[in-house]
Amino acid sequence: MLAYENNDHAVRLTGASALNLATGLASALTGTALVQFRVQDADYVDVVGETWPQTMMYIAGSLGDFIGVLRNEVVLQVGATYHFIATVDAGPDQYAEWDIPLPVLTRH
Is the pLDDT of residue 99 over 80? Predict the structure, then answer.
């Protein structure tokens, strides 16, 4: 995943699953799961320009694919370190979290 400064972005979480603590098995996520994301700096502080977290929408017919929008109002600087944090709540005992590096580039 990457971002360009001063651009809107479609962000995707693909093949998301959550560990069902009751069964010990991974469960592919569907549209019933609440999937949210936030962007944080190197110190894990939310970046400015958005109200966090943002909700991602399930892509119908997929096995755990979700899409969201990272708006250009979010202040991101080229060369800085950012984290794309995605969380999933698929019901009792089915929670997952991802910490994905988010490099920022200049679009030429």
Answer: yes
